[in-house]
Structure formats: C-alpha cells, structure tokens
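agent> fetching stored inputs for the heme C docking request
agent> found them:
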Amino acid sequence: MSQDQDRTFIVTFVGVIAVLVVVTIILIALAVMTRGPGHIAEERETIEYQRAERNLQPPGAVRLTGEPMPELAVAEPEPAAADLTPQDINQNYCMSCHATGVMNAPVTGTEGDWTARLGERGFDGLVQNAIDGIGAMPPRGGNPRLSDDEIRETVRYMLEESGISVN
Ligand code: HEC
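agent> prediction call returned; pasting tokens
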C-alpha cells in the first residue's frame, strides 16, 4: 500500500466516524425532545402504582389475564359496636373480668364492690376511668371501638345490675 492510499483511508475513516457521531447526537437530542427523561420516569411511576395497587388487592380479587372476576362471597361485616345495647356490651366485653372480679375488678352484681368507688369519684369519674383504663383494666375494657357514650351507658348498666341507680 502506498502512503497516499493510507492517507485516503484514514481521512475516509475519520470522516465516517465523525458523521456517525453527529447522527448519534442528533438522535439522542430528538429522543430527549420528543419523550424527555421526565416522561419516562412518569411512565415508570404509573406502572409502579398500578402494580402496587394490584398487589394490595385481597387474594383472589386479581386476574392477570383480564377476564372479569366471578362474584366473590363477601363475609358479613361484624356488627358495629353501635348496634349493641349496654347489656350486650357488658356481656361481651366486660363480664370476662367483672363477673368474678378478675384482678380485683369490682364484681357486677355486688353492690359493696362499687359503693366506695362511686362515693370517691362519682359516676363521671367511674366512666372516665373506664374510658382511660385504670389499674389492670385496659382503656374501654380493651375495645377501642366502643364510644364514650357506650362506655357511659354500660357503666350505668353495671351499677344498676349491682343495685345502684345513677342519673
Ligand atoms: C381485663 C379485665 C377487664 C375488662 C375486660 C373490663 N374491666 Fe373494668 N376493671 C377491671 C379492673 C381490674 C378494675 C379495677 C381497677 C383498679 O381499681 O385498679 C376495673 C374497674 C372498672 C371500673 C371502676 C373504675 C373506677 O374508677 O374505680 C369501671 C366503671 C369499669 N371497670 C368498667 C368496665 C367496663 C364498662 C368494661 C367493658 C367495656 C370493663 N370495665 C371491662 C378489669 C376489667
């Protein structure tokens, strides 16, 4: 090969590389302009949200094939505490301790267990302690769903069962 041929080759080679570099830069610029990097991140976020939403569905509620879901048997919701009478609440949530005096709980039905407490704190004081918890008794007897009013009426009921009536 002569030196002239070498030079021609090198010039052509460098020229082709230069053209390719320019074309690449133009393509990248076009890509960024039409679908900027922000766009891609946004799309990915949407897909991630959709996936997370799907993952949060209860088991059996998702079909990846896209067929409609058959009707699922839905469990009856637990009756709201609001549907319960003071008598029910007492029976369900309080008597476990107050029937027999577990951990020195005042026994419902035994007047003497209540009179001193009532004398000291009054009805409102008893209700407040039943709401906040006292000694070994957890707040609201361990049932945070019970409202203040429900606790109040239940304490009234407990006292009545013990032969004490309060206004
Ligand atoms: C886990 C056992 C337990 C349950 C359940 C429970 N209690 Fe008690 N309760 C206690 C104990 C123990 C005491 C006595 C605490 C003390 O004086 O140290 C007490 C005390 C009380 C008192 C007297 C508070 C005072 O100021 O002297 C009231 C009123 C009361 N409970 C109401 C209720 C009501 C209403 C419920 C149901 C919603 C309930 N308790 C459920 C254990 C329980």
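agent> quick read of the result: Residues 3-55 form one domain.
agent> awaiting further instructions
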